[in-house]
Amino acid sequence: MNLDLREYSVRTDLAVESKEIAENVHGKPLSGLNEQIEEQDGIKITRLDVTTPAVSEQIGKIMGHYITIEVPGLRTQDSDLQERVSAAFSKEFGLFLQKIGIQSAAKVLIVGLGNWNVTPDALGPLVVENVLVTRHYFELAPDQVSPGYREVSAIAPGVLGITGIESSEVVQGIVERTKPDLIIAIDALASRSLERVNTTIQIADIGIHPGSGIGNKRRGLTKEILGIPCIAIGVPTVCYASTIVNNVFDLMKSHFNEEIGSEENVQTKQIMGLLNDLSEGERLGLVKEVLEPLGHDLIVTPKEIDEFIEDIANVIASGLNLALHDAVDPDNVASYTH
C-alpha cells in the first residue's frame, strides 16, 4: 500500500510547536528565527520572532512576533500560581504592546471569539465577561474618568452557526462605528501535545482566524482586513485524536528505552516493529489512514475542561486588566473581574 503523505501534518496553532516540528525535520536550528526563553517558578516564556519569508514557510507561520507562556502547574488549580501567571502575562503583554508600537492611550476593542455553548470553545466569551470595559464611561461622563484607565470595549460576536454572520463582519462593523486603535482577539486553539492543553497561552501580532483550531479556514481578523493592528491571544483547549495516537508511539518508544536502559536498542525495535523507523509525518499518515474512514479522528479535550476553561479565562482577563489599565491594583486584580 502506497500512502500519499503530503496532505498529512500535525495540527497545531502554536508557533513553538511548529518550530519544534520544523527543527526535527531539518535536524538543526532554523535561521531567520529569533528565540528567547525564560523560565522561573514553573512559568516558561518563549519569545519567537519570525523574521524571514523562508523560515515563515518552513514552520508554517506568518512573519511576526509570538510569545508563548507555558505553565504545566495550572492544572493543579493553584490560586497563587494563577495570580503569578496573570502578573507574568500582564508584564509580557505590556512589553508586547510597546514592541509593536501601541500607545498607552490607544483605544482597545476586545473580541471574544467562540461558542459559549461549547465548553472548549468558550474561552473568548468567558474572557469578555471578566475584562474591565470603560468605553461607556468615556462616552457618557469623560470628565469623571479617573487617570490610569484607557478606553476599552468588548464583544463576543458568537459563531457563524448561531448568528449566520461571520465574526469578521460583525467586528468590521463595530470597528467602522467605534473606531478603536487596536483589536485584541481571543480564541481557543489546537495543540499537538496534551501537556500544553489548557496550560499554555500564546500572544501574536498576526491576527486570528475564527475556527482555525479545528481546521476551519475563514475570513479572519487581521490588520489587512480591519485596517488596525490585531493581537491574537489563544489557548489550546483541544487535540485531535490522530495527534494523540501519534504521540503515544513516541511515549511508548521512550518508555521502553527507559525500562530497558538504553536508547535505540534492539528490544525496543522488536517491540515497535516497523513503526520505530517511520517518521512522525509517516506515522501520522498511517494513523489518519486508519481513523478517518471510520469517522474517529475526533477532537479531544480533557474531562476537567469546565474547571480549566474558567481558570485560564480568569488568568487572561486579570492579566489584560492589569496591562491595559495603569490604575488597576495588582494586589487586588481579582476584584475587577466578575
From TrEMBL:
GO terms for MF: metalloendopeptidase activity
Q: Which UniProt keywords apply?
A: Hydrolase, Protease, Zymogen
Could you describe the post-translational modifications of this protein? Autoproteolytically processed. The inactive tetrameric zymogen termed p46 autoprocesses to a smaller form termed p41, which is active only during spore germination.
Reactions the enzyme catalyzes: Endopeptidase action with P4 Glu or Asp, P1 preferably Glu > Asp, P1' hydrophobic and P2' Ala
Q: Give residue ranges for the propeptide.
A: 1-13
Q: What Pfam families does UniProt report for this protein, alphabetically?
A: Peptidase_A25
**In the Enzyme Commission scheme, what number(s) does this protein have?**
3.4.24.78
Return the similarity comment.
Answer: Belongs to the peptidase A25 family.
Its function, per the record, reads:
Initiates the rapid degradation of small, acid-soluble proteins during spore germination.
Subunit note: Homotetramer.
Q: What is this protein called?
A: Germination protease
